[in-house]
Amino acid sequence: MDGDHGAAWFWDPEIPERSPGVMEYGCSLFLGWRPGIVPHLAAFLVLTGLSMAEGDTLVSVDYEIFGKVQGVFFRKYTQAEGKKLGLVGWVQNTDRGTVQGQLQGPISKVRSMQEWLEKRGSPKSHIDSANFNNEKAISKLDYSDFQIVK
């Protein structure tokens, strides 16, 4: 690795020396395009347990938010944030003083929304806790929009 400043090169069976196709700096993976690199990248991802399409996986998750979440426009802000992230689902107040609903969309966007529900919420809300249940992968979305249920 002389002169590489810590780069780790992955061996390509077609090129006995270091492969210019894939190198790793810490946790970041950099790809240099060259013919035939895709099968080697796919093998690398399989061996490391990573997935090329993980961010594209659609998921559905139910949620319930506890705290001062009624009378503070929590549902309206939740709907707006969900739409901003491109999610679908619904949100409603409960008789228990909580807000509940369901999120559906790409897993990375759902994770962002879960963090928003757990830590941010509407400006005047105070979130004590958030429960997320029944998470599952789905093949298609069950909703076409993000609705406030009355």
From TrEMBL:
Alphabetized Gene3D superfamilies for the sequence: 3.30.70.100
Catalytic activity: an acyl phosphate + H2O = a carboxylate + phosphate + H(+)
Protein name: Acylphosphatase
InterPro entries attached to this UniProt entry: Acylphosphatase, Acylphosphatase-like_dom, Acylphosphatase-like_dom_sf, Acylphosphatase_CS
Transmembrane segments: none
Species this protein is from: Myodes glareolus (Bank vole)
Domain of life: Eukaryota
Keyword line: Hydrolase
Family: Belongs to the acylphosphatase family.
GO molecular function, one term: acylphosphatase activity
List of catalytic residues: 75, 93
Keyword match Cell membrane: no
